[in-house]
């Protein structure tokens, strides 16, 4: 494998010129997608919203798959619990809950109806949760969780787990555990069409091309300002950006970095993501078994250069493993105690990464230059992720560059930290086995949700950083496009909300 399998990036000016040349062609890919849709004012709100989304459905919009996040972003399916900005559990379809050992009791909201007119009851909630718990494969949020739900009244149910689970309400906030009407469940398939409880009802789905939602006027939370949503799935990023510029779309997901610079700044919002690009260093074998050489590598890294040169300034330099998408992390972050750096003296290292994320090979090239300037001899090994993951997990690289989600479906980063840095973690690329880190991780995992758990999580982060097993580089952002006449669109780092009750186009 050659060290530089991807040619250097074109100068930004040439890249933008190329984008301008293809914009007209890209626009034709979406022209007419929203025919018949309008955004003229209607009554007390707005007309229909035209939404261009990046990824088409992969599983027929089943809530048991990643398609569930589309359902929550469209405000059509809802969960018992939702998360606030800090990641704390708040009432949704459930108005309250209490824990008694392994069992949690939830009280349901009164007066909620599904889109087919049937009432939300404890029995319908139990059906949804039981279906998810017995699915194969299970929703990610239930990996390793043995869950049993039982109705104890018309609007009360209990959820019991095999062991005490302080994060159960957070788990129930996952869109993959949406509560749907009985009509949604037919054999092994789950269809959300006309079966949710949100302010918008799915009335038609056209495969992987489009979907149509109408306002549900009996929604328990009030009347939505928009009369409906017309969704078009547009995987091509240039075409999505062109749709916003041409007025063909009101809201656009994931505007590419290469297109953002061509757009009116008033039309785009950069949303910090709970995703960190990190250089993992192999602590078990090779040169980075030496803590002094790990410290030397950390000191050689200039993350600002990567953010400016590779991401064109559309990312945040990392100060730790957890970034600005978790607003409480900065205030609780302490200074880790690290080893002193020792001179590399020509130490030979191999850095691995993958091509599936377009920026990572270029990040690898920049790091190669920075580490060579510090005295390392650096070889790059860059492949498709499917062909490199096994070697990375087996510790076959001295270092590995990874873009990693730091907040999984529970909205809590403890699971990510344990997976990546515990001695028994399933994604321990650094091969780290440090008793102090394990103690900190276990303490955080066992602490109930709230301020004490957040302090425990940041103590665990400091313990990891003190080993230099990981060098955080940057925190990614997603770029969302909203037309000038759009108000109230959500800008959610967790990508659970997009169109809400208050979203409309004038």
Structure explained in plain terms:
Helices cover 26% and strands 24% of the residues. The protein is of the alpha+beta class and 506 residues long. It folds into 3 domains: 1-76 and 198-264 and 484-506, D-Maltodextrin-Binding Protein, domain 2 (3-Layer(aba) Sandwich); 77-182, Alpha-Beta Complex (Dipeptide-binding Protein, domain 1), CATH 3.90.76.10; 272-477, Dipeptide-binding Protein, Domain 3 (Dipeptide-binding Protein, domain 3), CATH 3.10.105. The strands form 5 sheets. Strands 1, 10, 11, 12, 13, 14, 15, 16, 17, 18 and 19 form an 11-stranded mixed sheet that branches. A 4-stranded antiparallel sheet has the order 4-5-7-6, with helices on one face. Helix 1 packs across helix 5 (237-246), helix 12 (414-421) packs antiparallel against helix 13 and helix 13 (435-446) packs antiparallel against helix 14. Mean pLDDT is 89; it is low at 1-29 and 39-43.
Question: Which helices and strands occur, and which strands form pairs?
Answer:
Blueprint: H1 12-30, E1 46-53, H2 68-73, E2 81-83, E3 89-91, E4 94-100, E5 103-108, H3 122-133, E6 147-151, E7 156-161, H4 168-171, E8 185-186, E9 189-190, E10 200-206, E11 210-215, E12 226-233, H5 237-246, E13 251-252, H6 257-260, E14 268-281, H7 291-300, H8 303-309, E15 315-317, H9 329-332, E16 348-354, H10 360-373, E17 377-383, H11 389-393, E18 399-405, H12 414-421, H13 435-446, H14 451-467, E19 470-482, E20 486-487, E21 504-505
């Amino acid at each position: 494998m050659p060290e530089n399998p991807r040619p250097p990036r074109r100068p930004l000016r040439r890249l933008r010129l190329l984008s301008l040349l293809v914009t007209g062609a890209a626009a034709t890919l979406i022209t007419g997608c929203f025919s018949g849709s309008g955004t003229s004012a209607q009554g007390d709100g707005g007309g229909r919203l035209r939404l261009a989304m990046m990824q088409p459905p992969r599983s027929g919009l089943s809530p048991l798959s990643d398609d569930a996040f589309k359902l929550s972003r469209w405000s059509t399916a809802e969960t018992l619990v939702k998360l606030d900005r800090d990641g704390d559990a708040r009432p949704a379809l459930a108005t309250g809950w209490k824990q008694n050992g392994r069992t949690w009791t939830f009280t349901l909201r009164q007066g909620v109806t599904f889109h087919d007119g049937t009432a939300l009851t404890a029995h319908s909630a139990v059906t949804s949760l039981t279906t998810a718990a017995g699915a194969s494969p299970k929703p990610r949020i239930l990996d390793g969780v043995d869950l049993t739900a039982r109705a104890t009244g018309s609007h009360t149910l209990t959820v019991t787990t095999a062991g005490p689970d302080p994060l159960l309400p957070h788990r129930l906030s996952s869109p993959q555990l949406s509560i749907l009407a009985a009509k949604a469940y037919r054999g092994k398939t789950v269809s959300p069409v006309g079966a949710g409880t949100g302010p918008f009802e799915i009335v038609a789905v056209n495969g992987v091309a489009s979907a149509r939602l109408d306002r549900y006027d009996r929604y328990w939370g009030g009347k939505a300002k928009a009369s409906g949503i017309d969704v078009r799935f547009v995987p091509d990023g240039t075409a999505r950006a062109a749709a916003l510029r041409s007025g063909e779309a009101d809201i656009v997901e994931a505007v590419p970095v290469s297109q953002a610079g061509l757009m009116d700044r008033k039309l785009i919002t950069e949303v910090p993501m709970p995703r960190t690009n990190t250089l993992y260093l192999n602590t078990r074998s090779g040169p980075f078994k030496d803590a002094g050489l790990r410290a030397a590598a950390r000191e050689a890294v200039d993350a600002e250069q990567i953010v400016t040169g590779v991401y064109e300034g559309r990312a945040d330099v990392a100060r730790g493993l957890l970034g600005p998408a978790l607003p409480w992390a900065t205030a609780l972050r302490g200074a880790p105690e690290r080893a002193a750096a020792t001179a590399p003296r020509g130490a030979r290292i191999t850095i691995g990464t993958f091509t599936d994320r377009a920026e990572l090979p270029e990040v690898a090239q920049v790091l190669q230059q920075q580490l060579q300037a510090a005295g390392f001899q650096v070889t790059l090994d860059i492949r498709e992720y499917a062909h490199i993951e096994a070697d990375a997990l087996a510790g076959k690289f001295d270092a590995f560059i990874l873009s990693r989600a730091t907040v999984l479906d529970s909205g809590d980063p403890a699971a990510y930290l344990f997976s990546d840095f515990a001695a028994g973690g399933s994604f321990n690329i650094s091969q780290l086995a440090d008793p102090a880190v394990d103690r900190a991780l276990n303490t955080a995992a066992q602490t109930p949700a709230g301020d004490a758990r957040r302090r425990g999580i940041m103590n665990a982060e400091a313990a990891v950083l003190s080993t230099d097993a990981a060098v955080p580089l940057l925190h990614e952002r997603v770029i969302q496009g909203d037309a000038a006449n759009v108000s109230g669109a959500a800008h959610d780092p967790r990508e659970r909300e997009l169109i809400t009750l208050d979203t409309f186009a004038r």
